[in-house]
Amino acid sequence: MPWPWRRKTRRTLARIAIEGPIAGATRTRVLKAIHQVEQRECPALLLRIDSPGGTVGDSQEIHSSLLRLREKGCRVVASFGNISASGGVYIGVAAEKIIANPGTITGSIGVILRGNNLSKLLKRVGVSFETVKSGLYKDILSPDRALTEGERELLQGLIDSSYDQFVEAVATGRGLDQKLVRAFADGRVFSGAQAKEHGLVDGLGDEETARRLAAELADLDPAKTRTITFGSPPKRFAGLLPGRSQLRGLGQALSLELAWNGQPLWLYRP
């Protein structure tokens, strides 16, 4: 049943931004923000996504939380920014409507898992590993050796299962046939305009376009509706210094590469 909107929130539109790679910290922040939107009983949520995607479980938890918010009667509209790919798409399809810029980079529906085979390098520098394990596959994706055929088959099954979940979510969220989704869900990326042709987004426009749509869906006057942002990421002073933001971005990319090694990811990796 829809919420009995309280007077103080009847003209309030909530906004949550998902920016950068989707990982544990993002999940924690966004889930807390969604809970705050639920507690405030805001009639509509503008979900701004500017992300290449990230970890599977974190994306799924945000997706599920958004669906529960919609069940409570909150109207959710997603706005795709510069990029909303892979896990960003997965989260976005939990929204009732999606608006993208014509040039937004989106799509990249699929799963990727990477490991590092450093066996030749380790051999060259004289480093070797001694492994004691409880099962045949316990050291799968170990960096000191290549995958066996059995391990590759096992991991492919894991990827296929995750891919099926992704396709099902997109098909359900966008009201598309799964066969149609699979026809373009091969990792390719689209512009926002191309995504509209495939049914991945409902319309083209900027964040203000999405905000107005969210207000209208909740029977609010866009001109008289105030927007409150929940769960803003903390600002870092170092990011204001010349060159620091680029250095931080490079460091973040390296740390994520190491942290996500061996994990199935819903991530756009050019």
Describe the structure.
The chain has a single domain, classed as 2-enoyl-CoA Hydratase, Chain A, domain 1, CATH 3.90.226. Strands 1, 2, 4, 5, 6, 7, 8 and 9 form an 8-stranded mixed β-sheet that branches. 41% of the residues lie in helices and 18% in strands. By secondary structure, the protein is α/β, with parallel strands linked by helices. The protein has 9 helices and 10 strands.
Uncertain spans, ≥5 residues at pLDDT below 50?
1-8
Helix count, DSSP H or I runs of 4 or more residues: 9
Kindly state the percentage of residues in helix.
Answer: 40-55%
> Class, according to the CATH hierarchy?
Alpha Beta
Total domains: 1
**How does the major sheet shape up?**
8 strands, mixed
Mean pLDDT: 90
Descriptors for this entry?
270 residues, single chain, disordered N terminus, two-stranded antiparallel ribbon, 2-enoyl-CoA Hydratase, Chain A, domain 1, alpha/beta, 18% strand
Sequence-ordered SSE layout with sheet pairings:
Blueprint: E1 12-19, H1 24-40, E2 44-51, E3 53-55, H2 56-71, E4 75-85, H3 87-92, E5 97-100, E6 105-107, H4 119-124, H5 149-174, H6 178-184, E7 189-190, H7 192-198, E8 203-204, H8 207-217, E9 226-229, H9 244-259, E10 265-267
Parallel strand pairs: 1-2, 1-9, 2-4, 4-5, 4-6, 5-8
Antiparallel strand pairs: 3-10, 6-7
Helix pairs in contact: 1-2, 5-6
